[in-house]
Amino acid sequence: MGEQNEYRLYVGSYPPSEGECGIYLLALDKARRSCSIVQANAETANPSYLVSAGDVLYAANEQSECAQVSMFATQGDGPIVLRDTYRTHGAGTCQIALDPRMPYVYGANYESGSIVGCHILSDGLFGSGMDSVQQSGHGPNSERQEGPHVHMVGFAPDAPALISVNLGTDALMSYAVGEHGLEPAACAEVLHVSAGEGPRMVAHHPTLPFTALITELGNHLIMYRRHGASLSSWEQLDSYRLVSDEFGGEALAAHVLFSPDGRYLYASVRGPNQIVVFSVDKSGALVKLSEVSSGGSWPRHMELSPDGTLLAVANERSCEVVVFEVDKANGLLAGEVARCAIANPTCAVWRK
Question: Which of 31, 171, 287, 341 has the greatest number of beta carbons closer than 10 A?
Answer without folding.
Answer: 171
